[in-house]
DNA sequence: AACCGAAGCAACCGCCCACGA
DNA sequence: ATCGTGGGCGGTTGCTTCGGT
């Protein structure tokens, strides 16, 4: 069956933005006669437009029951919830939001909500934790490996900072979330770093803290419920002797050896990378790392040699060098760190 | 003030399906 | 069962606006 010749290029049919005069012609005609056959409508209404264009203009902008203006928080939540069930069925979603059109919802999703979910570490298609972050489930292995090697330096921190640019910061967020999650427990769906850390701090959920940070408003009800069931961080067993910088060191090595190509790596492979640098046999040439921004010889990678000149004073990683997960997780240092890293909640803010 | 890139959004494109002949 | 048509839908484009330098 061929394409119907509705809006073909003949007859010099007008395209582009509608003028107020055209809008008036369309509205007046439909008020008087109803739209009837959209194909015949333009001629009857005195419009040099194709029927499809008229239908779109009417249904998306001229209909009297259209609701304009910002989406409310409730509408946002509803869209996200419905999208998790219906997928990109914008028209179906629109039927649940009176006054909103499918086109408007679709645009809002693509420009706002999609990015928002990505920033929260949620895959906007599956509404599950992003798969590129899932590979970080192997972080506990990294921690164990790092505990034995204890190699760390400000180079590693620096390398991580340099690599965590706007496009990659979520990966870092995933790392920290994985660090905070008990190894035996599955990463909670959609819970972002701040929520997780704040909620598990001290072994109990701190609702006030969550709400004060606006975290709850960014969570689906089911995600918040999941949050309530999280074990306390004090149950983290395997990281007893691992320092956070050591884990970051290993992870930065992994990043540079994998070029951020996350798919297809098992936690075992992650562990190998952690203990053996870039020697993981599964690494392919295509996954070769881009060079780090700073020259290797300017800073002794894999050692604890300080290199203050490349560490900015405002680095959010400052003060991590001596942090021990078990001993210090409830300390003021962590609280300070969380404050410093509040930018993780805002993808638009450029701190790195 | 001018320029430029990013973000937002209105509008279009083209595929698909339902329905009637 | 097949075909033609109308309409709906999701994806994409391109113009406008905004914000940073």
Automatic annotation (TrEMBL):
Q: Name one GO biological process term.
A: regulation of lignin biosynthetic process
The name on file for this protein is: Uncharacterized protein
Subcellular localization is given as: Nucleus
Per the record, where are the segments of Polar residues compositional bias? Answer: 300-314
This entry's Gene Ontology molecular function terms read: DNA-binding transcription factor activity; transcription cis-regulatory region binding
Q: Name one Pfam family in it.
A: Myb_DNA-binding
Per the UniProt entry, the signal peptide is none
Q: Which residues form the HTH myb-type domain?
A: 10-62, 63-117
InterPro entries found in the cross-reference section = Homeodomain-like_sf, Myb_dom, Myb_TF_plants, SANT/Myb
- UniProt keyword annotations, A-Z: DNA-binding, Nucleus, Repeat, Transcription, Transcription regulation
Domain Myb-like per the UniProt entry, residue ranges = 10-62, 63-113
Region described as Disordered: 297-318
**For this UniProt entry, what's an example GO CC term?**
nucleus
């Amino acid at each position: 069956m061929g394409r119907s010749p509705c809006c073909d290029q003949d007859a010099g049919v007008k395209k582009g933005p509608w003028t107020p005069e055209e809008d008036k012609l369309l509205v007046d005609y439909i008020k008087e006669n109803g739209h009837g056959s959209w194909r015949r409508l333009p001629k009857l209404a005195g419009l040099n437009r194709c029927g499809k264009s008229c239908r779109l203009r009417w249904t998306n902008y001229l209909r009297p029951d259209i609701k304009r203006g910002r989406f409310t928080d409730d509408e946002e939540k509803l869209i996200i919830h419905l999208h998790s069930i219906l997928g990109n069925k914008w028209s179906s979603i629109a039927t649940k939001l009176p006054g909103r059109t499918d086109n408007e919802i679709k645009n809002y999703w693509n420009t706002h909500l999609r990015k928002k979910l990505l920033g929260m570490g949620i895959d906007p298609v599956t509404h599950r934790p992003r798969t590129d972050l899932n590979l970080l489930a192997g972080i506990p292995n990294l921690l164990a490996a790092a505990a034995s090697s204890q190699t760390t330096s400000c180079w590693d921190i620096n390398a991580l900072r340099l690599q965590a640019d706007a496009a990659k910061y979520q990966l870092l967020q995933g790392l920290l979330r994985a660090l905070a999650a008990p190894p035996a427990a599955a990463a909670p769906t959609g819970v972002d770093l701040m929520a997780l850390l704040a909620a598990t701090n001290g072994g109990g959920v701190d609702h006030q803290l969550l709400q004060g940070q606006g975290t709850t408003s960014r969570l689906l009800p089911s995600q918040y419920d999941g949050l309530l069931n999280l074990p306390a961080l004090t149950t983290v067993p395997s990281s007893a002797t691992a320092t956070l910088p050591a884990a970051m060191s290993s992870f930065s090595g992994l990043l540079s050896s994998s070029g951020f190509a996350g798919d297809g790596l098992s936690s075992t492979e992650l562990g190998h990378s952690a203990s053996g640098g870039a020697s993981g046999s599964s690494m392919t040439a295509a996954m070769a790392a881009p060079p780090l921004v700073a020259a290797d010889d300017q800073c002794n990678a894999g050692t604890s040699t300080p290199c203050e000149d490349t560490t900015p004073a405002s680095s959010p990683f400052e003060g991590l060098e001596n942090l021990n997960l078990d001993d210090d997780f409830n300390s003021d240092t962590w609280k300070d760190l969380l404050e410093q890293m509040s930018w993780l909640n805002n993808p638009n803010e450029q701190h790195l």
